[in-house]
Design brief:
CATH topology of the largest domain: Leucine-rich Repeat Variant
Distance between the termini: 97 Å
Number of strands: 0
Oligomer: single chain
Number of domains: 2
Shape: globular
């Protein structure tokens, strides 16, 4: 008959073995994903993507797998993990992100977005940590912010005050994220007042990627609020960089675009 002390030791051993086996399964899954990504890569794709990323002073690590193939792999492997808890899937996402490869990052951000119906408030801090640790290019910024982070803010607008703080960051991608994260909501006709506040914060930003980011945010706002955005642009066009201005008015009517681009005498 087992004594209490022996039972506790046995329980600890079993739990330790279960934990060990669990991590081995996770490692095998991550390895399988990486292997498939590598098998579908090509030198031509890698050279093209590397050249593109280096335009923005980044040092990308990549397999060279076409985006369409990455998305298909992501969807197929998500079907294998979707019954796991959100916490377990987020752990897998962390493992994927730690690889440093842009393809694994795409899979991680995609899985996080697929879990959007189960978000809770604490998830903001996980997503924010990914932004600050794993986003080093406009593609990564826009992927995370227009999907997982954007969906989170749409559900939990109390955190808009947090993303407004990003506009003060020294990091170009964090500043861009402060605008791009609202695109998910503004496409659904929400939070226009916050769009203008963030545009105010970024109005004179010298970084072209930030200028394009908040210009894109304003452009998306014109789908529901063309007159309001036009009024904002006309009020601020003397200070607004030309890049931001052109992005913001792109979807306005020809007459409004012409008026916004007219040089003042």
């Amino acid at each position: 008959m087992l004594r209490l002390k022996d039972t506790c030791r046995l329980g600890k051993a079993l739990n330790g073995n279960t934990f060990s086996r669990g991590w081995k399964v996770k490692e095998m899954l991550i390895d399988e994903i990486s292997k498939e990504l590598e098998e579908l890569s090509s030198p031509e794709e890698k050279n093209k993507r590397t050249h593109w990323e280096l335009q923005y002073q980044e040092k990308p690590r990549m397999h060279g797998t076409p985006t369409e193939s990455v998305r298909k792999i992501s969807a197929r492997f998500f079907s294998k993990v979707k019954m796991k808890s959100k916490e377990e899937v987020f752990q897998l996402c962390e493992e994927l992100l730690s690889s440093g490869y842009i393809e694994e990052r795409t899979v991680a951000f995609d899985w996080a977005f697929r879990l959007r119906k189960s978000y809770v408030e604490f998830d903001f801090y996980i997503l924010e940590s990914w932004l600050k640790k794993h986003v080093h290019s406009w593609g990564a910024c826009d992927d995370l912010c227009t999907h997982a982070l954007g969906a989170f803010i749409f559900q939990f607008p109390k955190f808009i005050s947090n993303i407004k703080e990003w506009a003060k960051s020294a990091n170009r991608w964090t500043r861009r994220a402060s605008a791009v994260t609202l695109i998910y909501s503004i496409r659904r006709g929400k939070y226009l007042e916050h769009v203008f506040e963030i545009a105010d914060s970024l109005l004179k930003d010298k970084d072209v990627m930030v200028q394009k980011g908040y210009g894109w945010m304003l452009k998306e706002a014109t789908r529901h609020y063309p007159q309001e955005v036009f009024k904002y642009v006309m009020t601020h066009r003397k200070e607004m960089p030309r890049t931001s201005l052109r992005y913001a008015i792109e979807k306005l009517s020809p007459a409004l675009r012409k008026e916004a681009m007219k040089k003042e005498i």
